[in-house]
């Protein structure tokens, strides 16, 4: 079993209220693949420049992530994103985006990348997401993420990509922006009407919720006392979600499977934000994941469910 992810593999320069880092390993596909690698085999599809060195490749290698489809362009420079977060770290500002080799990215997947059961189209040009989706015609489960920039500038292509996947992962502001509907329940219904079976709505420090035609499931964020850098929280959430589902090795996924996956997504997101970039995930252990999963269960389940006597 394996998951294929296509998206940015980058250097990030970050400033948060807790400090700053220059050119550390980042990118949506990086965060997704490292998180998913705790659950299953991962193949990453992306492009980097000659500045992407042994140390960066070593992070993927140390997690057993297949980088066969990570093209390296001789003489090129890697995608570089510079971001700054306000004291309210739900508010992020893009200071600079240098696409570099990413500008000419033309993903052509190897046979093994095409054959994964689960394919995640991280935040890239929607036309490229569709191109990859079409190359993975046998995938059992597909998902995509996007961002305000594409919602505004590539709406039609994004709609076509949304129609082609099973699961859409967006934050609540993006869902509102895409649908033009301020009521979240109506907005979710509009999005699902396009075809996807599942909408995962990220709500930053407030957690995440999953909406399907039949059910609604909400999970709080883990109550961390120190959040150092929220970069990659959404991608790690998606990595935990899809990685866990792949690890089940099931051909049919039911609502309980999806709910557990939302909790594993939340677990992975809660770790990544504890330190800059994916520093925390590089030394994360399986025991820590299981321990936090249990804590999430305690936060979300109350037993026995005793109804109050109301009057
Ligand atoms: P997240 O915090 O999960 O929304 O994603 C953060 C990651 O997205 C960072 O590591 C960036 O390198 C990457 N990123 C930022 N802007 C873009 C963009 N326009 N296209 C692709 N990836 C991006």
Short characterization:
The chain has 311 residues and is of the alpha/beta class. Helices cover 37% and strands 24% of the residues.
Descriptive overview:
With 311 residues, the chain is α/β, with parallel strands linked by helices. Helices cover 37% and strands 24% of the residues. The chain has helices at residues 28-36, 54-62, 111-114, 126-135, 148-153, 155-163, 172-179, 184-192, 233-247, 255-272, 279-282, 286-300, and strands spanning 2-6, 10-16, 19-26, 41-49, 70-73, 79-85, 92-98, 118-121, 141-145, 167-171, 198-202, 208-212, 216-219. A 9-stranded mixed β-sheet has the order 5-4-1-8-9-10-11-12-13, with helices on both faces. α2 (54-62) links the parallel β4 and β5. α7 (172-179) crosses α8 (184-192) and α9 packs across α10 (255-272). The radius of gyration is 19 Å and the shape is globular. The chain starts with a strand and ends in an 11-residue tail after the last helix. The mean pLDDT is 96. The structure holds adenosine monophosphate (AMP).
Give the helix/strand layout.
Elements: E1 2-6, E2 10-16, E3 19-26, H1 28-36, E4 41-49, H2 54-62, E5 70-73, E6 79-85, E7 92-98, H3 111-114, E8 118-121, H4 126-135, E9 141-145, H5 148-153, H6 155-163, E10 167-171, H7 172-179, H8 184-192, E11 198-202, E12 208-212, E13 216-219, H9 233-247, H10 255-272, H11 279-282, H12 286-300
Parallel strand pairs: 1-4, 1-8, 2-6, 4-5, 8-9, 9-10, 10-11
Antiparallel strand pairs: 2-3, 6-7, 11-12, 12-13
Helix pairs in contact: 1-9, 4-6, 7-8, 9-10, 10-12
The structure holds adenosine monophosphate.
Adenosine monophosphate binds at residues 8, 10, 12, 26-28, 31, 81, 97, 123-124, 231-235.
